[in-house]
């Protein structure tokens, strides 16, 4: 058994009234689009159409479902998407019964419930509403800004046919000044802005020197004339030219006006004014507010009296970590010895006026390798990165001498300079660990984390898990990156005990969906690596997908596993959507497992007992036959394997946390630098 004990928790969910007879029988509408869209475009177009036709309407299969009578909807018109124009016509097919016990039909009812929530929130007066978030009380005010208090809400339908409301108290910082006025007060540029005349948001790139009358837009109008023709300048100053970008395409700069933009502020932006505004809530206060907000929503939206939802929770056994001996955290392995070490050569590059390894770093590395029973040679690289070709030659010579990774001691540098330097190293297959100066012996947490990262980048195994688990191989899949493209299918594989880590990455791609062929190929690469290591294929594989699993994304991969006779489990791991949990008695602990409906469970992987309320992961068992509790235990234990954090643990299991770091790093550095890098060297931690 994996569990240590049973307890009871409150979820931040509330049971409301059952759906009425008409709500269980929404209108069905057949949709005809001309020209007929391609297979990949059908569902996004129907979702967009549902928003456009009005009412409480959502996509349902290859048509629409609505709680609004057809005569209240726009039954024919024009739809535009990605430069393509479609005409549409809707044909009402009458009311059709939906069964909330059927997962697919319950999903449609839940989508209708969420749309109902949004529409009714919009009708409330005197509130700041954004999607399913509502803010109604002022919490604090400063020079040109105010903080509102409210909650992020969700509404869906249970399998018993009742509304379920989720409430999470939240704050919203609003700027009351235009970007021009905000900058005039001496504030630095915010990272993001929104239109003053609607809620569209932008990435703020820079302030331009151009004259707004001379900046021409496609079509021939000047920037100033365009906004005047739209009525945006009425009662507003024009200001200067600001260059912004759509968050989905940040490489394309778009001209705007500082007088028509409003800063989107973070807590850091107002800290100086406020002197330390604290917005986190202890769990006791958060739960009280949650109850009050649920009662207010139930009353104002006519959804019934909310009843708090309780759930059974189980504390899972704690993971056991091994270096050369048992350890409580990865940093301990620097003293008792790494789980797996081999003869290693590390190099140092100093970008200050000093030379040589600091004595305390040298002593720490000597102690770690002596305890590991492996030899260590320390090298010093004396070269100037500004001299590109001479620097590349110095790196080539260092690699010929056996250097496996490089520690860089440097005064603080810009992110652009850091990324250029990292890319230079990677071209020669040498991962780097950058550590800012000044560096003091007493800052043990900081430099021990850096040394652990350096060792992982050199391909050494810091710690492993003790014990046996259902899956012998866990593989994480993520899609992410920067700018208008993403790197899809970054995979990090972990052996059963964490004694083997590797990464792989396909070509850049658009969007969050990973092509089926890419998923299959990545999985086969990790299976081949396992076979080279163990001399056989694994008996069971745990596939972890960051976020929701797009339909059919893993079809080819699962078919390949079935052909090889390899058992599998596919789990969707979601950082958001798990809501909050509160103790009924006592307090929360790490490793709390909360089974829910539909092969779904919550998992509290990391909980530190300080101000604030932790967020559990939400996990959905998409395929496979391993019991949920055994899956939860393995995933919980995998959170302890991240090698570059010596004292704290990430929320995500190691394969996913590593995959997330991988796609972000490659988004910064580009994929072209990686061909020389050993797949065992975790250059991105």
Summarize the structure.
With 685 residues, this protein is α+β, with helices and mostly antiparallel strands. The protein has 15 helices and 33 strands. β9 (145-157) and β10 form a beta hairpin.
Which key terms come to mind for this protein?
alpha+beta; 15 helices; 685 residues; 5-stranded antiparallel sheet; 27% helix
Explained architecture:
With 685 residues, this protein is of the alpha+beta class. The chain is 27% helix and 31% strand. It has 15 helices and 33 strands. It has a 16-stranded mixed β-sheet that branches. β11 and β12 (201-207) form a beta hairpin. α12 (516-534) packs parallel to α13. It is globular. The mean pLDDT is 89.
Helix fraction by DSSP (H/I, runs of at least 4): 25-40%
Mean pLDDT: 89
Strand content: 25-35%
Tally of separate helices: 15
Task: Give the CA-CA distance, first to last residue.
Answer: 33 Å
* Weakly predicted, low-confidence segments: none
The largest sheet, given as strand count, sense and whether it forms a barrel, is: 16 strands, mixed
Number of separate strands: 33
Structure class: alpha+beta
Radius of gyration: 28 Å
Shape: globular
